[in-house]
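Supplementary notes for students who missed Thursday's class. We covered one full example, reproduced here. Read the sequence, then the structure, then the short commentary at the end.
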Amino acid sequence: MKPVRSLARAMLSGIFVVSGYRNFMNPGRLVPAAKLVTDRVTPLLQSVNPRIPTDTETLIRANAAIQVGAGLMFATGRLTRPAALVLAGTLVPTTLAGHPFWNNDDPMARNNNQVHFLKNLGLMGGLLLAAVDTEGKPGLRWRTGHRIGHSRRSVQRAVRTARREARIATRAAGTARRLPG
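Structure (token representation):
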């Protein structure tokens, strides 16, 4: 199943690497559409840290750089689960800014943006599946529960052994008291 996962990750990450590179190299064409989203995010960013740049072009470049980096990590199988979550996170502002079909009056433009909006939702669904994919290995929750259960059984076994040895020691002490001398 590893070849299928590897191929699927490469296919899924391709759009992020290619469009991330294009957007990083030429962010100016996206500024008008992204401005609506970045104007709403700017106060939040400023409250987190006032040194974070808030101009639209820089935020577009940052999102694009993150998409390229996380896309390459996802495609090469490095930290795939966190990379998938990061890519899904970058898809939210991209989709809201790039495909606001609810704002279109023209039926053709509305339909086109709706298709792209739904396509991005599909990509996000695939990324969320990839983020929880343990590649057939037990997940952290199962391993933790299994380890707790194993530890609990080990402690119970140790308690039974200690009680058994205490009974044996008590009998031996009783026998030793009855012996003359």
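Commentary. DSSP finds six helices and no strands in the chain. The chain has a mean pLDDT of 87. If anything here is unclear, bring it to office hours.
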